[in-house]
Amino acid sequence: MKFTGVHVAVAVLIAAATSTVVTSCPPSDRAALLSFKSTLTEPYLGIFNTWTGSDCCTNWYGVSCDPTDSRVNDIILRGESEDKIFTQTGRSGYMTGSLSPSLCQLDRLTSLIVADWKGISGGIPACTTALPHLRILDLIGNQLTGKLPSDIGKLEKLTVLNVADNKLSGEIPASIVNLKSLMHLDLSNNKISGGIPADLGKLSMMSRALLNRNQLTGAIPASISEIYRLADLDLSTNMISGTIPEQIGSMPVLSTLNLDSNRISGEIPASLLRNSGLNLLNLSRNLLEGHLPDVFTPMTYFSVLDLSNNRLKGAIPKSLSAAKYIGHLDLSNNRLCGKIPVGFPFDHLEASSFSNNDCLCGLPLMQVC
Ligand SMILES: *[C@@H]1O[C@H](CO)[C@@H](O)[C@H](O)[C@H]1NC(C)=O
User: Fold this and answer.
1) How far is 296 from 270, CA to CA, in rounded Å?
2) Is the full-model pTM beyond 0.90?
3) E strands of 256-365, at which residues?
């Protein structure tokens, strides 16, 4: 077959069309990645040995690009993984160094996951808040220090903010309440101090908020009860004081509430124990006082109800024996008195659930009434 001018023109057009689809990594994205890599050291797995060649979108471990324009979309580097590179070497990840601000040049990033490397130190680059497409920021399990960027609220699309298990300090930035897409907030196990923003309740998409194991002070904001998707709230092991806002007991999908190991005072709101959706409640190691509200019903279902180490007084309400299920009950180390109710949810409980009270009696304790 003889090539005509038309054939050549068609071939050129096809070549032009396909070349716009198979462009490789833009040199500026590649340079930003190499600069990001240059401040990190990963000695055992060799993941950065795959970061060679001009096309950062192909075979660079942990890097993925938008197929339409080859801009870098995701950096997903997890130090705990089932990937071949981990199973072959039979060890989990370890990485030292710091997070270079050069990653902020990757302005199309949607996921930045640099998690569980145990040794990465330094701060969270302040410029991270200028990544307009960022949806997932997951830096759990490193040695990061410094503060959360004060303008973190600029990340309008952020759905996951996970910086747990680091050494971050400073306060929770006031702007955090502007993260209107945020669903999962995990700041646990850091050294974050100061109060919980009073208007945290503005985070209306949030379903998990884990602020435990920090140095937070002040009271629990009542506005939290406005977050109607919130299923899991953990404020344990802080220095939180004040009382438990009554409204928290009316939250529709709250199923786990950990307020243990704080300085919370006042009485346990009846609404909290009446909330039949709440399955795990730990209020242990606080300064709670007054009587246990007599509000249990056949709808009551707790896998964990730990009220130990407080200053609760009076009798254990009889209605507690009406509960449908109570897996783990701990009322020890309070000032309770009187007869322990009999009935199904108490049958399997041990004496330790009731020990160190003022004058409880009846099984499973040895004291007869
Ligand atoms: C409740 O919290 C206390 C104090 O933080 C902890 O020791 C205890 O194990 C927790 N209870 C349960 C059942 O997890």
Assistant:
1) 9
2) yes
3) 256-258, 265-266, 280-282, 287-291, 301-306, 311-314, 325-330, 335-339, 359-361
| CA 259–ligand 1 middle distance (angstroms) | 10
Higher pLDDT, 233 or 348: 233
Q: Residue 7's pLDDT band (boundaries 50, 70, 90)? A: low
Mutate to test the pocket of ligand 1, among 281, 282, 350 (most ligand atoms within 8 A of CB): 282
pLDDT higher for 187 or 89?
187
Domain boundaries, the chain: 72-77+93-361
CA distance 129 to 115: 18
Please tell me the CATH code under which domain 72-77+93-361 is placed: 3.80.10.10
Q: Which atom of ligand 1 is nearest to the CA of 330?
A: 13
Probe target for ligand 1 pocket from 189, 213, 235, 260, with the most ligand atoms within 8 Å of CB: 260
Mean pLDDT along residues 112-135:
98
The 3-state DSSP class for residue 303 equals strand
